[in-house]
Design goal:
By secondary structure, the protein is α+β, with helices and mostly antiparallel strands. The protein has 3 domains: 105 residues, no CATH class; 213 residues, Beta-Lactamase; 84 residues, Arc Repressor Mutant, subunit A (Orthogonal Bundle). It is built from 15 helices and 19 strands. Helix 3 packs across helix 4. The longest helix has 49 residues. The model has no long low-confidence stretch (mean pLDDT 86). Keywords: Membrane, Transmembrane, Transmembrane helix. InterPro entries: Sig_transdc_resp-reg_C-effctor (IPR016032), Tscrpt_reg_LuxR_C (IPR000792), WH-like_DNA-bd_sf (IPR036388). Pfam families: GerE. This is Transcriptional regulator, LuxR family.
Length: 487
């Protein structure tokens, strides 16, 4: 009960760790499969865009800048890539897909430095993890929407603003010599301008066959889609929440990631979580609250700053603590009741079995036990009593000790009275079974002094050796007369 009360034995800790680990493995497997699907299709999209641009749009030597101020050419390019982009969005079940190129329709426009041409398609409706086929044109030439009979988003813009895409310039830089398969990034959560939505992106550079950078493309996972795809998991310790976010120096950067449906385990998505790593589970905390959970990193998933993404499963610490306290109290009550029941059973067993054994043993200690005819009811004690009675009767049937032996004992006992105090002490140790070598330490005398006392003892008692003395001692013990020497 003390160990349970102090938390050393915590059944709740073991169970919550198992629940968290099982749920984490399931969620991580699903998220990893989805991210791998995004990555494969994102890289394929990049390669297909490169092939299309070099075959149908640009002339050799390929330079995406030749499309600047070419309104018709950019419109045609966007119209022709629509089916490719829409197909990738539906295959991956993403909430959006985009392709943005390092060129603009009007270099003299006020924001031309950060304005880039491209197409951005987003799903019109996301409900209950069911992605409907309706598509919005979020960025791009409006003719793309009219030609493909889709709606234009109410926050539509003609071109992308790369100031909202901080990773764009780095990915199209010619200093990056890695292939698209090595250079793709998972972009931290970004707020979509003029909307209420947050999204994270897979971003892959579109690299020409000659090494030139045409732009970037990728797929979107909106915060709403992630919440619907990963609902809360109800457990007896509270609702478990799935989180995907980068990890950096003991912190889970929730402000840069996405959270699934939260239920009663409210977590502020704008406040990073500090990680206190434990043996069984981790404790996560920020200014808003405290949580327990587990996490695992995702192989091959890095953000633009080289931080690895991780999947975590969290539950409110207060909910867990309340459940743990209840289970601990119940365990203590159960142990208390069990202890009381065991005490009562022990008392009954003691009264019915142990007491008769004790009375039987005490009866055997008396000198006249063989005269009593009472039985204890304990088979082993009754058998022992009967055996000792038989031995006593056999002993008494042999008659008294012969007179000559009796005289020898009497003479030995009489002679022992002439021993000095020191000699009597030595004799007492012999009776206790001590050896000569032990006596110097016991009596604080030398071995020679012991030998001197031995010679006096042998002379006074009429024996010639230690062995003969020991025979007398053993016989007197057997006859029950040894106490006459010790008195």
């Amino acid at each position: 009960m003390m160990l349970v009360a102090s938390g050393v034995f915590s059944e709740s800790g073991r169970q919550i760790e198992q629940n968290l680990q099982v749920h984490l493995q399931n969620q991580k497997r699903d998220i990893k499969e989805r991210m791998d699907l995004f990555t494969i299709n994102g890289i394929d999209l990049s390669k297909r865009l490169t092939t299309y641009i070099e075959r149908e749009v640009l002339s050799y030597p390929y330079d995406i800048k030749e499309l600047e101020n070419d309104e018709e050419g950019l419109r045609t390019m966007q119209e022709n890539m629509y089916l490719l982009l829409e197909g990738k969005m539906h295959v991956t079940r993403a909430s959006g897909v985009y392709a943005v190129f390092d060129t603009t329709v009007n270099t003299s426009a006020p924001n031309a430095k950060h304005s880039r041409s491209g197409v951005y398609l987003r799903l019109a409706n996301i409900s209950g993890n069911v992605l409907e086929d309706d598509v919005f044109l979020f960025r791009g030439n409006p003719n793309v929407a009219m030609q493909n009979k889709i709606q234009i988003h109410n926050r539509w813009n003609m071109e992308f603003d790369t100031e909202d895409m901080y990773w764009f310039d780095n990915q199209i830089s010619t200093n990056n010599t890695k292939s698209p398969t090595e250079k793709y990034l998972w972009i931290n959560r970004v707020h979509l301008k003029d909307t209420w939505e947050n999204s994270m992106f897979l971003s892959v550079p579109v690299i020409g066959s000659e090494g030139g950078r045409y732009g970037i493309c990728g797929l979107e996972i909106s915060g709403l889609l992630f919440r619907l795809s990963y609902p809360k998991f109800e457990s007896k310790y509270g609702d478990m929440v799935t989180i995907i976010a980068p990890v950096d120096q003991g912190k889970l950067l929730l402000s840069k990631g996405l959270s699934g449906s939260q239920g009663n385990s409210y977590i502020n998505e704008n406040d990073d979580l500090f990680i206190d790593t434990g043996k069984v589970y981790n404790v996560y905390f920020n200014s808003q609250g405290k949580y327990i959970g587990v996490q695992q990193t995702i192989d091959g998933a890095y953000d633009s700053e080289g931080r690895q993404w991780a999947v975590a499963v969290l539950v409110s610490y207060s909910n867990f603590e309340a459940k743990e306290s209840y289970e601990k109290a119940m365990m203590i009550v159960i142990l208390t009741v069990f202890s009381l029941v065991m005490f009562l059973i022990s008392f009954v067993i003691s009264r019915q079995f142990v007491k008769p054994i004790e009375r039987g043993i005490e009866n055997l200690k008396t000198d006249d036990f063989y005269k009593n005819d009472s039985r204890t009811g304990i088979a082993e004690i009754d058998i022992l009593t009967e055996f000792l009675k038989n031995k006593e009767e056999k002993y008494k049937s042999k008659g008294p000790v012969p007179s000559e032996i009796e005289e020898m004992f009497d003479r030995f006992i009489e002679n022992s009275k002439s021993l000095t105090t020191s000699e009597r002490n030595i004799l007492r140790y012999y009776i206790e079974g001590r050896e000569i070598a032990e006596l110097p330490d016991l009596l604080c005398i030398s071995l020679n002094t012991v030998r001197k006392h031995n010679r006096n003892i042998y002379t006074k008692l009429g024996v010639s050796s230690k062995d003969e003395l020991q025979i007398y001692i053993d016989l007197l013990i057997c006859c029950g007369r040894i106490h006459e020497i010790l008195e």
